[in-house]
Amino acid sequence: MASKKEEASKKCVTEYYVTLLVDKYATSPKKSEVFYDKEIALNRSLITTVLDVYVKSSKSCFDPVRCLDGIGASGVTGLLWKKHICDNVAVTINDSRVKAYERIKENAELNHLDVEVLNRDTCVLLHEQAYNFISLDCHTMAAHYLDSAFRNLPKDGILAITTTDDAALHAIMPEIVLRNYEGFVARTFYSKELAVRLFLAAVARAAARYNKGLIVLCSIAFKSSFTVVVTVKRGSAHANKSIQNIRKLIHCTMCEDRTFYPLTNYPIELPSSLLGCGCSRNFPGKVAIELGPMWSGSIFSEEFLVAVHHHSHKFPWKVKADLLLRQLVAEARCSCKDENKFPHEEENFIDKYGNESDNENQAKRLKADDDDKETVKSGNLLSTYTVENELINPLISLESNKDPAPPFYFNLHRHSPKGPQLLRVDTVIQFLQKAGYRASRTHFDRGAVRTNASLSNLTAVLTQAANVN
Ligand SMILES: [Zn+2]
């Protein structure tokens, strides 16, 4: 009788040729062990494409790549990997909940896919086994997994974490953010990127405890979730350098101007002087607050995103992923020129350097490893050789000759001078670029521009543009 009832509670869904039996009445991951979230199918497609880039990059220390879908639920992510990337990956799907474990086994059989299915505590498994491609779809509990995720993650290994932490995303419950990510957050017009950066600071700290330096490959906020994809460099020098990216942000509550604190242990005499706006002089009382500490480093790697976009063409989600990936590449570039054209696909880093013989690659890797050791020994920052060498392999580069995209963005509704009409985002971008600034749209907010212009410069450009139009 019970099994009949169970059968009746199942329904069949298909995601990119993977058939899944999921709970029919599941409304949230808390209420159902086999929760299937259709909303974040695009996140899963992107993670699968990232795995494909990784498999082809020859950066993996295991052959085949050891992949873990650590919180399987229906098992969809791991099954997508096996279905679309096939033989180059050894896929393990784990879920600590018995019902989910049984359903994953059932779903794997249903699709005739050869994957290992485990019923272990995710953290214990991560402490015991080494995987070099890990995806954790954490719902709201991402902070619980950070320590164990980095314990055995090898050099150049990839960790993708998806969280639907609405409280953090919208700064509704700052106390939760403080507990989980050790940073202070307030409601702002750029809260999505704030949430990502607060989360990344917690990720970088966890990596640093295992002497690993963090490199952020991409950060995507999509609907009510966000996904960050990171890789690591081993060694205390890398860990130290990465941890220096964790800084406080000073934010003006009147005009929303903001800037990161400089890297110094000496107290700043007048912190509000760091801001470009004059609000603290013009308004009574305290108008500036400190947010964070949070990740101040780059949150995208342009080269990596170009590779992901290129690889996405061969998958059935190419059309759906195309727009988002194009937008992410443009955002990571945040160019000062009007570049609507997309980078030539021949420039893709894997195609460009993938033809080199394994010996050449091996020689480069050995040389890079030697340099790593020297760097660690001397405690200096990266040598010039390492920097140049790593430019050849952008996937693992900690240094880049390209300036990362400027942090945060300005919402035009919030910052436009009062006037008859609101300028279109693309128009504002063109005006900023003409004035010599870097500018792009941002996927975090459709009504905002990412730019290296200060708020006062942006206001000047907006005023000028409003007069022209
Ligand atoms: Zn201000």
Automatic annotation (TrEMBL):
Enzyme class, spelled out: transferase
A Pfam family matched in the record: TRM
Gene Ontology MF annotations: tRNA (guanine(26)-N2)-dimethyltransferase activity; tRNA binding; zinc ion binding
EC number: 2.1.1.216
Any single GO BP term: tRNA N2-guanine methylation
InterPro entries: SAM-dependent_MTases_sf, Trm1, tRNA_met_Trm1_C
Name of the protein this chain belongs to: tRNA (guanine(26)-N(2))-dimethyltransferase
